[in-house]
Fold this protein.
Amino acid sequence: MIGVSAESIVKPMWVDNNTYSLGIFYNGSTATCNLSISGASGTTKITNCNVYLKNSSGVTIASWTNYSATGDTLDFCKSTTGVSSGNTYTLSFSATVHRNGNTENISGSTTKKY
């Protein structure tokens, strides 16, 4: 079985340099969804992380909500079935980064046709 992937480039979010990497990896009937958030120096936690995989019609195929991590990194990896070749999928997320007594909301998405 040949795996195909879609992965966004790590992107700086603000001046504080919070970054994320987001990817969908497809192997024929299963999509593995990966997210890694790295908070800027001084980040104490990342909360309220919600991840959604949707098809091209906007129908949610899978959702994972309320993930959190203590420290400056949140890593997420989950798989789901119900995906098929010839379709377009969007993986999106939102989260809150806590740093130096302040919070910053971050979000992102990546879309790939398989």
